[in-house]
Amino acid sequence: KxxxxxxxxxxxxxxxxxxxxYYSRVSADPQAFALYASSLPGKKVEELEQALYxxxxxxxxxxxxxxxxEKAKNQIQxxxxxxxxxxxxxxxxxxxxxxxxxxxYWKAYLPGVRAVTAEDVQRVxxxxxxxxNRTVASYNRKAGSVxxxxxxxxxxxxxxxxxxxxxxxxxxxxxxxxxxxxxxxPHRDVDADARW
Length: 196
Hints:
By secondary structure, this protein is mainly alpha-helical. It contains 7 helices and 2 strands. The protein has helices at residues 4-12, 45-61, 66-82, 87-100, 104-115, 118-128, 152-165; strands at 16-22, 34-39. It has a two-stranded antiparallel ribbon. The protein is globular.
């Protein structure tokens, strides 16, 4: 909740109920780096979409701060280590790496994360986060209908499935906007103009 993207579009600009990013580090198929957000009632999807693009542009033009980079590395490393909390989980993780690229890549993952610099983040953002590599989707509900609850993780999984099935182009998708879902709070319905 304190990440740059969430802080900016949720707290500062007050455009979204939630916002985040997702990327699967182990896959034989092309993967999307997904940005997602759920708009606040009365906010237009296009305005939120532009705010997400602005955050991507900031990655290209401004170096992330040392504190932001260290925090991100700590979260990634903790997630990686805690995902090995059982023999089964560790075996599953090792098997995934072996299938995709070989188990030595599993061993090299944490040192690779530790080696990332702010300049690396900026260079990669400039290389991959281009309009040509972008796939944008939004969820529409019909006016007057009750919106289904669609957790952001489910929407991201749905997008990954479409990419795998070839329903979407297999380009590196730099922005996926997940909008239009209903939150757990029935008084905080999302804008009916949302697109998916």
